[in-house]
Design a protein that fits this description.
Elements (H helix, E strand, L loop, with lengths): L1 H8 L1 H7 L5 H8 L3 H29 L2 H19 L4 H29 L2 H15 L1 H38 L8 H8 L26 H9 L2 H31 L4 H22 L5 H24 L4 H29 L4 H22 L5 H33 L1
Helix pairs in contact: 1-6, 1-7, 2-8, 3-4, 4-5, 4-6, 4-15, 5-6, 5-8, 6-15, 7-12, 7-14, 8-12, 11-12, 11-14, 11-15, 11-16, 12-14, 13-14, 13-16
């Protein structure tokens, strides 16, 4: 189940990162500008954002399995369309639909985790899953760069289509188990650790919220919680750092530093190890609030260093360690924010996960085109520093608020 949920959560980075090394080739194929093909990345992020807002609350009411099946079906169909697109306009439309389909997989991975775990166990699980997710941004551009010359950018989308079909088949067969209310009542009598909700190891739990909790009530409870609102803002600015890195990296490291597609794939994968390492360590810190604050302070320091090195026209070897540290600090914050939010709002975990995912990908969709304004190194460095500064302010506010709540409790 851990591997399956990690595979679902990896849809986001895999859908956005797998074809990154082929962006220059795609611009030539469609006879359009780099900013237009970058819009395909934005369209996918907006689809990921909007789709989660539909699928998340729906899964709180209808259960997890059916929304997941439909999401994977939409993903497979739209990826087929993207691979066969005759022009860039159809490709952009298919990318939006592809994001809609992938959104269900992402939000469901988090909601099912919240169904199964609470407290410290949820934090550890999210940290481990975040670390496993690091495999996706490591392998996606690397595989893309290795096979791009042989199969081209369309071949990469045919591989994504096949992956969607495989996960759809797994969801429909091996993980299609549901349990009756009587089974659930019997399972709660079994021995389990306090932070683990007893469930079948291979089942996706079909759950519903309390009968009195409507969608409107859930929304009011979420946005009536100052901590949740702060975490939403935290997700926006941390995603701005993440997607500024994703969108700008092909043009900075291939065009500015002269890396080949294969070299860029290895570089991008190595940098993604930083996010995975930070995510793995996140659950071991004292609290999610401390992890978010520590990550924010570290990001501000590292992004300032990256900006200074870009301004000094330093070599790639000088930039790599500081850039890697920036992504480690980013990895600390991502699972910590999700853990804090879902721990506070388990009865509405699907909606909570959807909102956090939506604002993250929505913000990323807005940020991606900004990296192509002027010199890519300059615009990206500005985005890194500004976002990290806001994250520091949010981190301090969250730490104070959650400490005060703990003292009152």
């Amino acid at each position: 189940m851990l591997l399956f949920l990690a595979a679902l959560a990896a849809f986001g980075p895999f859908v956005t990162d797998f074809y990154l090394p082929t962006l220059p080739e795609q611009a030539l194929d469609f006879q359009t500008s780099p900013s237009t093909v970058q819009l395909g990345l934005s369209m996918t992020m907006w689809g990921l954002a909007i789709g989660q807002l539909f699928v998340g609350p729906l899964s709180d009411v209808k259960g997890r399995r059916k929304p997941l099946l439909w999401s994977l079906l939409v993903f497979a169909a739209s990826t087929f369309g993207a691979a066969a697109a005759p022009n860039v306009q159809i490709f952009l439309a298919m990318r939006f639909l592809e994001g809609l389909g992938a959104s269900g997989a992402i939000v469901m991975s988090r909601a099912v985790a919240a169904d199964r775990y609470t407290g410290k166990a949820l934090g550890s699980f999210m940290g481990v899953m975040g670390s496993i997710q690091g495999i996706a941004p490591i392998t996606a551009p690397l595989l893309g760069s290795l096979i791009a010359d042989a199969i081209g950018w369309r071949g990469i989308f045919w591989i994504l289509f096949a992956a969607g079909i495989v996960l759809l088949a797994i969801t429909f067969t091996r993980l299609a188990e549901t349990r009756s209310p009587a089974d659930r009542r019997r399972s709660t009598k079994s021995k389990a650790t306090p932070d683990v909700v007893p469930q079948s190891a291979s089942a996706i739990e079909e759950r519903t919220p309390e009968p009195s909790e409507t969608l409107g009530t859930s929304v009011r409870r979420l946005f009536g919680d100052p901590v949740f609102v702060a975490i939403v803002l935290q997700q926006i600015f941390s995603s701005a750092v993440l997607f500024a890195h994703i969108a700008s990296s092909p043009f900075i490291f291939q065009t500015h530093f002269g890396l080949s597609a294969t070299e860029y794939g290895f570089f991008f994968g190595a940098m993604a190890l930083g996010i995975a390492a930070g995510a793995a360590f996140s659950g071991k810190l004292a609290s999610p609030a401390f992890a978010m604050l520590a990550g924010a302070v570290g990001m501000l320091a590292a992004s300032s260093g990256v900006a200074a090195l870009y301004a000094a026209e330093a070599s790639l070897l000088a930039i790599v360690p500081v850039y890697f540290a920036l992504l480690v600090m980013l990895g600390l914050t991502l699972p910590a924010a999700m853990t804090a939010a879902l721990s506070r709002h388990r009865p509405r975990s699907g909606l909570a996960a959807a909102i956090l995912g939506a604002v993250g990908f929505g913000g990323g969709g807005l940020v991606a085109p900004l990296t192509s304004i002027g010199e890519a190194t300059t615009s990206t460095a500005i985005l890194f520093i500004a976002s990290s500064a806001f994250l520091c302010v949010i981190g301090v506010a969250l730490m104070r608020r959650m400490k005060r709540e703990a003292a009152q409790a």
